[in-house]
Design a protein that fits this description.
This protein has 4 helices and 25 strands. It is mostly beta strands and 471 residues long.
Length: 471
């Protein structure tokens, strides 16, 4: 037993000595190579950027990074020569192949990590960004290379365009990716998570403190950066992104949002003027979309969506319960200042209690303030009290008909035909009535009324006393 213990002790001592000698040799090799590494790093930075770069401290080698050789740049700051801060990081680390760096003197980057970094992409009122003069173009033929691990932790990305009046701020909690360059093409695969801190367009805040998840693959085949299966989630909004971004000469988006879905409750939280009657609406939205056009340098893209809305369960409005709601719509928004914004409801169907139904379609152009719609309905008048629309204590009966609305000079013009059947209100009764509406005229045809035992019939009655329009 003692012999075995002695052998084990000798083995451990020998192992520790071997490790110590190896680490000492590594330390000596690093010390002897530091000037060469510094020269290579300086050449790399000057070759990549035309900017003022400052680094507070550089550390070569770290045990936790073995078997890779790391160069850690602490307090890294990149500024334009005019003093604009474009990138800064608490720590930026390059990871090299240890054997190639120390023995073959070939400095091949296999990893890159950034901690607490901030990346700024500003455009001024003239559409100019300092980055246009920062990155140096490589005119040579690049050899294949790969970054096996790209890691970002607790980083910030901030985009601003004064001419377009747009800002986007992202907080990246963690992003990990692999990058490979071959045959003039750049392949990127990975995933990242963080928070959309702010999305603001024309001084309107659209998103704030919303978690996001991004996962998939990208291909850079100059001049396009293409999606090869990208999944995006912002809170409960989920979609697959296809298409790409043309990077030169001006960034141009050509993206498709495939099979996106979002819960109505999420949209409700983003809507400051959310209608109170819809407070208990429980619905699901799904559809397709496109984001196209230039971005940056004063430009914003166009957003086109084709969506459908389905209610999950019946929902109450006041004391009335809507059983089902379904909507199909197309939305077009040119995000540029003064751009066209329109909504087309191609199909709307609402089913309430008993046989209450409403169906129709509607179009509205926000820029020109033009709109029109057509609706067909059948409704129990007794529900007006339940909906809180009118003090209809004893109102009952059925109304049905077709109405068309036209928006003209900021006023909705009303046309249509309304039929009343078996309507009672206090001492009055309407056996039947046909009401015709235009913006100027009300007509009453084939109507039978009862009031306190008296019967009144009309075959035709016309009134020109209606107001010209509804505000």
């Amino acid at each position: 037993m003692k012999i075995l213990l002695k052998k084990a002790l000798r083995f451990l001592i020998g192992l520790l000595l071997g490790l110590g000698i190896a680490l000492m040799g590594l330390a000596i090799a690093l010390y002897l190579s530091r000037d060469t590494l510094f020269s290579w790093l300086k050449e790399l930075l000057s070759h990549s950027f035309s900017a003022r770069i400052t680094v507070r401290d550089i550390q070569i080698g770290n045990l936790r990074d073995l078997p890779a050789l790391s160069l850690s740049l602490r307090g890294f700051l990149l500024q334009s020569f005019k003093g604009d801060t474009l990138f800064q990081a608490k720590e930026a680390s390059l990871h090299l192949n240890l054997w190639e760096a120390l023995v073959e003197k070939n400095y091949r980057i296999i990893g890159l990590s950034l901690k607490e970094a901030s990346f700024f992409l500003p455009y001024d009122a003239q559409g100019y960004s300092p980055w246009q003069n920062i990155l140096r173009k490589d005119t040579g033929q690049a050899s294949p290379w790969a970054i096996e691990k790209l890691l970002l932790e607790n980083c910030i990305f901030h985009y601003s365009d004064k001419e377009a009046d747009a800002t986007l701020s992202l907080s990246i909690k963690k992003l990990s990716a692999a990058v490979q360059y071959q045959a003039d093409k750049l392949f990127i695969s990975g995933k990242g998570a963080g928070t959309v801190e702010e999305l603001r367009l024309q001084k309107h805040l659209h998103l704030k403190h919303q978690p996001f998840l991004l996962e998939g693959e990208l291909l850079h085949d100059s001049p396009w950066l293409l999606s090869k299966g990208l999944r995006l989630q912002i809170a409960s909004f989920m979609t697959h992104v296809e298409g790409g971004i043309r990077l030169d000469p001006i960034p141009l988006l050509s993206l498709r949002l495939k099979n996106f879905s979002v819960d109505w409750t999420y949209l409700k939280n983003l809507w400051p003027a959310y209608p109170k009657p819809l407070a208990k609406l429980n619905a699901f939205i799904e559809g397709q979309g496109e984001i196209t056009g230039p971005i940056g340098r004063g430009h914003l893209p166009r957003l086109q969506l084709a969506v459908s809305l389905h209610t999950k369960v019946p929902f109450p409005i006041e004391t009335y319960t809507l059983q089902q709601a379904y909507l199909q719509a197309r939305l077009a928004f040119d995000l540029q200042k003064g751009g066209k914004k329109s909504v087309n409801i191609d199909s709307l169907f609402i089913r309430g209690e008993e046989n209450d139904t409403l169906s129709g379609c509607l179009t509205y152009d926000f820029r020109q303030e033009l709109g029109k719609g057509t609706f067909t309905f059948q409704w129990d008048l007794g529900t007006l009290k339940a909906l809180g629309i009118a003090p209809a204590e004893s109102l009952s009966g059925i109304t049905r008909g077709t109405l068309s609305l036209t928006l003209y000079k900021k006023q909705w013009l009303l046309n249509g035909n309304i039929f009343l059947e078996g309507v009672t209100w206090r001492d009055a009764q309407v056996e039947k009535a046909h009401i015709g509406l235009t913006p100027e005229v009300l007509t009453l045809r084939e109507s039978v009324f009862f009031f306190q035992g008296s019967r009144l019939t009309t075959t035709f009655f016309r009134s020109a006393a209606l107001p010209a329009a509804m505000g």
